[in-house]
Design brief:
seven-stranded mixed beta sheet; 7 strands; alpha/beta
């Protein structure tokens, strides 16, 4: 049975009454309860449940799991309350690899879920050499649908359509100092009848014009300059991407010996 995606607040009155009742189907000292095997990360169990269930269902699972997670004498409701108040997972989403329909859907679902939990900032960590321009624009559309600011961070490469996602962040746009950003003219691979190729070429030109328009809006640069730069692969270091307007700031690397 699939769980509805609509989440309820953990400050649910019914949930509070349940937790304050002092009893649950199992007690923390139940003789039939087996402790969690050594080395099993208890918080990973909690995070998996917390990220996939509504609050009431999560509370029920905690009431059942509390004896195994916190063995010892007595108060199951207190055990459940302590687990419910554990820190939530970090609001970070990974965009790693080729931008395609599967990756775009995964990123979009995570952004929508996090925005439903709260409207705090979300970090989108990017390491991609690009991919489908349509799927990249779908991710940009999700930025506009949610209220949470999306901070985009280049972790390695942000090339082609991934550079547009990086530049289109609605929060802080950043790149580590050792990273690389690249923009270029869109390319198409197609074959078939001449009339079909002409139709594809027209659509390709429209898509390329839109890409120029988006990058001009995100960077504040003149569209003609961007169009000229995109005729070939236009590589930029993190500091060059900042000066170009594709990001706001460069993140320095930590560690190493200073001489």
């Amino acid at each position: 049975m699939s769980v509805p995606r609509i989440r309820r607040s953990l400050e649910d009155p019914a949930l509070d009454r349940y937790l304050s009742a002092g009893e649950s189907p199992h007690s923390c000292h139940s003789a039939t309860t087996q402790p969690v095997p050594p080395g099993l990360p208890k918080m990973s169990i909690l995070s998996a449940i917390r990220s996939s269930l509504q609050a009431p269902l999560f509370a029920l699972c905690i009431a059942l799991l509390a004896p195994a997670l916190i063995p010892g004498p007595g108060r199951p409701a207190a055990c459940a309350k302590a687990l419910l108040e554990a820190p939530a997972s970090r609001r970070q989403v990974l965009l790693f690899g080729r931008v395609d329909a599967e990756l775009a859907r995964d990123v979009a679902e995570q952004l929508l879920d996090l925005d439903q939990e709260s409207h705090e900032e979300i970090d989108l960590l990017i390491n991609s050499t690009g991919g489908s321009i349509g799927d990249a624009r779908a991710i940009l559309s999700v930025f506009q649908l949610i209220e949470s600011p999306v901070n985009t961070v280049c972790m390695g490469y942000a090339w082609s359509s991934a550079a547009t996602i990086l530049a289109g962040g609605t929060g802080a746009r950043q790149a580590f100092e050792h990273t690389s950003v690249m923009i270029h003219e869109l390319s198409w691979e197609d074959s078939g009848r001449i009339s079909a190729l002409e139709t594809t070429a027209r659509q390709g030109r429209r898509d390329n014009d839109l890409e120029v328009s988006l990058l001009a809006r995100f960077s504040g640069r003149d569209p003609d300059l961007i169009r000229r730069d995109m005729r070939q692969d236009f590589y930029l270091s993190a500091s060059e991407a900042r000066d170009y307007g594709l990001i706001d700031s460069v993140l320095p690397l930590k560690g190493g010996k200073h001489r």
